[in-house]
């Protein structure tokens, strides 16, 4: 039985005290790249280390543009990080998310997560151990950075703060639905190969298919995965998963689909929940790309 006397946010470790408030940003470079405008930024999000970010916008118009926060994947490729927005990964479709989303009229932002790309230097395992010893949780700090990035983006004149979506693959998919569960500014959520039910993962002995980054101490004493995801209801959400993806066990995907279908039905918005099970494994397929583009166009 879950005990919701413990707020979900309180399980995410000791978070920085300096927010909320204005986010300092340094524009390092702006250019035309691959058919869109691009800004390279350095953001002061957490008071511990500055966070590199990439913001891309359509070539035509001054906005305000609807925003998609793109969460990069893990894939064991710590040198990639936010570069995935521009260059994709082997398990993602082409063209890139930057080119695809700006062509649809969206501004898109991606930050480097802790330990990735320009925030490298410490291994994921080292970050987890250091944060545990000092009362922090790596996943909590990742989520904090994402929410502070939204603080910054919502203050920009060229961003429509009332039209915010988020999308990502794998680790980025987990980030998408966790962020939406914690932050109601996210109006539309798309997660690709990130629909992981924690208890099912334990039952299927699939824990070692995932990195250390997303484990929150004591989480299952208080919340099931379904209960966290129900916080998104009734806002539009699409979850896309591969039928043969052992990182997102099919039993867990079905369990969450049943629970969320009931929750959206009870909220009077059954059309706002879409579960897509596609052919394939841990990858974005063309079927998925077509589906999420249509979903975003409809809801954002």
Description:
The protein has 300 residues and is an alpha/beta fold. It has a single domain (8-299), classed as Alpha/Beta hydrolase fold, catalytic domain (Rossmann fold, 3-Layer(aba) Sandwich), CATH 3.40.50. It is 32% helix and 22% strand. The chain is built from ten helices and nine strands. The chain has helices spanning 83-87, 97-103, 124-133, 138-154, 171-182, 198-203, 219-222, 225-229, 250-266, 286-299; strands at 24-33, 36-44, 51-58, 65-71, 107-111, 159-169, 188-192, 237-242, 273-278. It has a nine-stranded mixed sheet, with helices on both faces. The longest helix has 17 residues, at 138-154. 42% of the residues are buried. The model has no long low-confidence stretch (mean pLDDT 94).
Question: Can you summarize this structure?
Answer:
The radius of gyration is 18 Å and the shape is globular. 32% of the residues lie in helices and 22% in strands. The longest helix is centred in the middle third of the chain and has 17 residues.
């Amino acid at each position: 039985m879950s005990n919701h006397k413990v707020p979900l946010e309180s399980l995410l470790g000791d978070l920085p005290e300096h927010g909320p408030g204005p986010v300092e940003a340094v524009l390092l470079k702006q250019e035309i790249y691959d058919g869109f405008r691009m800004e390279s930024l350095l953001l002061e999000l957490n008071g511990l280390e500055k966070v590199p970010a990439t913001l891309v916008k359509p070539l035509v118009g001054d906005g305000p543009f609807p925003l998609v926060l793109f969460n990069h994947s893990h894939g064991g490729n710590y040198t990639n990080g936010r570069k995935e927005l521009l260059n994709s990964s082997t398990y993602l479709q082409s063209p890139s998310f930057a080119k695809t989303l700006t062509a649809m009229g969206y501004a898109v932002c991606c930050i480097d997560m802790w330990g990735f790309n320009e925030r490298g230097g410490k291994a994921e395992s080292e970050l987890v151990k250091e944060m545990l010893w000092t009362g922090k949780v790596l996943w909590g700090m990742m989520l904090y950075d994402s929410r502070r990035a939204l603080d910054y983006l919502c203050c920009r004149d060229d961003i429509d703060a009332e039209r915010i979506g988020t999308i990502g693959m794998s680790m980025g998919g987990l980030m998408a639905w966790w962020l939406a569960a914690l932050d109601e500014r996210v109006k539309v959520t798309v997660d690709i190969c990130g629909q992981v039910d924690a208890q099912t993962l334990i039952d299927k002995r699939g824990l070692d298919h995932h990195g250390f980054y997303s484990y929150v101490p004591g989480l299952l004493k208080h919340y099931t995965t379904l209960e966290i995801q129900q916080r998104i209801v009734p806002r539009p959400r699409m979850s896309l998963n591969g039928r043969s993806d052992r990182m997102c066990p099919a039993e867990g995907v079905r369990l969450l689909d049943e629970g969320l279908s009931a929750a959206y039905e009870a909220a009077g918005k059954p059309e706002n929940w879409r579960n897509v099970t596609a052919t394939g494994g841990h990858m974005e397929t063309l079927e998925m790309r077509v589906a999420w583009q249509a979903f975003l166009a409809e809801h954002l």
